[in-house]
Every structure is written in C-alpha cells, then in structure tokens.
Amino acid sequence: MEALYAWLNSLQNKNKNEFSQWPQIKWANPYVIEDYQSQRELLLQNLKDNLLYKNTKPYWNYISKGCEICASGKWSCLFITNKCNAKCFYCPTQQTRDEKPSTQGLDFDDPYEYASYINHLGFKGVSFSGGEPFLFFERTLKYLKVLREKCSKDLYIWIYTNGILVDESKLKALANLNLNEIRFDIGATGFSLDKVRMAKDIIPNITIEIPAIPEEKDKIIALLPEMIEAGVRNLNLHHLRLTQHNAPHLVKREYTIDSAERPLVIESELAALEIINAAKKSGLNIGINYCSFHYKNRFQKAGYRNIISDKLLPAAKITKNGYIRDYKDHSISYYSIKLFNDSDEVPFASSIEIGKYKYSYTVTKVFEENKLSSKQMKAIDELLKNEPTSPPTDALLFTIWQFEYIENGLRDW
C-alpha cells in the first residue's frame, strides 16, 4: 500500500496547507480515528447487503430514479442561478449573486441551446439547482418548458429547493410541465415539513435531500415517520465537507476533519450511516441513501468525462474512469477533454458543433511515461486486463490504476 499511503499523505498536506488560517481545525489523527473506524465498520456491517456503486453508496430500501441516472453518468445539473435566499451554515459556497444558467463550466443563456446539448450528449436526466431556482421561477419554468418541447418525453427532470418560496400555484405550474421530482433541503427551514406536505399529490416524487448534520441525527431519525406521512419517498443524506466559505461555522462545531480530495467531516458520515441503520431496523417504508463524497467525486466526474470523451472522440480508448488512454511503443499517456462555450480566447482549442451551436474543446495530456521497460509493460498489460481488488503498491501502476478505474469503497480515515 506504499503508493496509496504516499498519495493520501499528499492530500493531507495539501488540505492542511489550504486551511492553515484555521489552526483550530480538528484534523483526524491516530488517537481519535480508531474509535470512529470501529463505529463505522459496525454500521457498514449491518448494511453489507445494502451497498451500491462499488460500495460508495450505502442505502436502505431503494434509491430514486434520479439517483440511478446520476450513477449511470447520464445526469446534467443546470445551475439556474448562483443566488440563494437561505443562510445554511453548511453551504459550501457563497451564493449571493445571480449568474447565467450553467453546468460543467458552460453557460446556457438560451434554453434551446441547453436542450440541444442534452440531446446530443444523450443525457437521461436533468436537474435544476442553484442557488435557489424558485428565486427566478419564470426562468426555471422557461427551461423546463423547452426541455419538454425539444427532448425525449422520457427525460427525467427534478428540481432542488430550500422550499422558502414554494407555494401551491408554483408546484402546479411545475406539475403541468411534467416535473418528475422535487427535492427539499429542510435543513434550511428548521426541518419544517410544511412545504413538503404542500407538494404531496402535486409532484409525483418527493425527496428530502439534506446534509447529514451530526447534532441533528436524532431529530432526523425521529422525523422519518412524519416524512413518510408527508409523502416523502426518498431521503438523500449528503456528506458535510469543509470549504473556505463554511470553515468559520464548521470549526465552531468542533467536527473532526478527514483529508480526502476535499476535507470531510467524519461525524457526518457516521450520522448518515446511523440514520440508515435506524430506518432499516424499524423497517420504514422510505428509501434512504448516503450520497457520500467518495461516490460523488468518483462516479459523477467519471460519468461526465465518459460522455464528453465518447461524443467528441468516439474512436479513442476511454477508461472506466473517463480518461483517454494512448498506450504504445513503450509509452503510456492519459488525456482529459474539456468543453467550452465557443471562444477565441481558449488557446490550442478545436471546435465542434452541437446542433446549430458552436463549442470549443481541448484535449490535455494529464500523465505521460515514455520510457517503459518490458517488465513494466507486462505489469501494465495485466493491470489493464484485470482490475485489481486493491490499489497497486508500485507508484507507476498506482497512477495508472487511478486513471483506469473507479476506486472501491468508503476510504479508511
């Protein structure tokens, strides 16, 4: 495991350096991790038959169709605005300005252009997020209407909201355009279910999607029967993570922070697993899943890379993790594609048309080793032929493994 430990150590160094202005952060260390690790192992053992997507998504009962589409890599999330009317302590970004509707670094002023993008790339699901989509409700309706006019009738569409501006007339307007699902963050409204109840019998699928806040764990468990009564079909629990924006709030709560690709709250993961275990023990008729950071960081990113690579360079050899591989003549390289709105400002970019709309894209080399020995090539051939059950210990093979495959499981702390 030498290569893995070296890489994890680099992540820890990066995170501690990035958050050096917060010396009071409780970074995970061997003195506190052992007990946490034991708790998690027991909770996961109880859910051993309820783990999806390479064991990164523990769940109870079922997950929503939207979550299934997300895991397949066929989901596009359109940020209608970056402005929000709530002040949640856990929000990872400063959401104070209205901005153009966007996704994956692309701006979509025109809903017809967005519909063309969805059709060309073959997305099966679309969500409207923010910020708060109900702040700009007519804009949201406009995009939903165009998607229903121009895209497949089977396109699954949902919306995220804190619920503050939700009312019956707006819910009916969304339902008239065949919105499939609405997801409420009730953490923004003191865990009130009033707007959730309002959506019952109007929107076909009602979900509550909230961070797993450790100190609210018991409240959430106690609220589960009321959620079911209010028409909630799914509860999605997110992993709290530390950012520059929410650090002032999170450090006051003295959470224990683990260093992954982003700093994560350990107690949040334990809370999510305890909530799922409680629902399973009671046999509650609700679907609950833990949308772990590791799931989102691996599957969502890999899904988009695969879609872009497959559509822009269909003849390329694309790895399970969505990178383009070039392996020949004692050399191996990996490339990543980035799609841009059409612009002369992108250096060394190629151009492509999606429908009648023009875009730029770049193909960037992200790794190269051009002096492979015969022994190394033999080991690489075996790695490409058979996915290993654990990360390679050799540094080169470990790096290749990262570009080729999606890591399994919730990583140890």
Characterise this structure.
The strands form five sheets. A nine-stranded mixed β-sheet has the order 2-3-16-13-12-11-10-9-4, sandwiched between helices. A five-stranded antiparallel β-sheet has the order 17-18-19-21-20. The chain has 413 residues and is of the alpha/beta class. The mean pLDDT is 96. Helix 4 crosses helix 5 and helix 8 (217-229) packs across helix 10 (266-282). The radius of gyration is 22 Å and the shape is globular. Strand 2 (51-52) and strand 3 form a beta hairpin. The longest helix is centred in the last third of the chain and has 20 residues, at 293-312. Helices cover 38% and strands 24% of the residues. The two termini are 14 Å apart. The protein has helices spanning 2-18, 30-45, 65-72, 111-121, 137-150, 168-176, 194-199, 217-229, 247-250, 266-282, 293-312, 374-385, 395-404; strands at 26-27, 51-52, 57-60, 75-79, 82-83, 96-97, 102-103, 106-107, 125-129, 156-161, 181-184, 205-211, 232-238, 256-259, 263-265, 287-291, 317-318, 324-328, 331-341, 350-354, 357-369. The protein contains 13 helices and 21 strands.
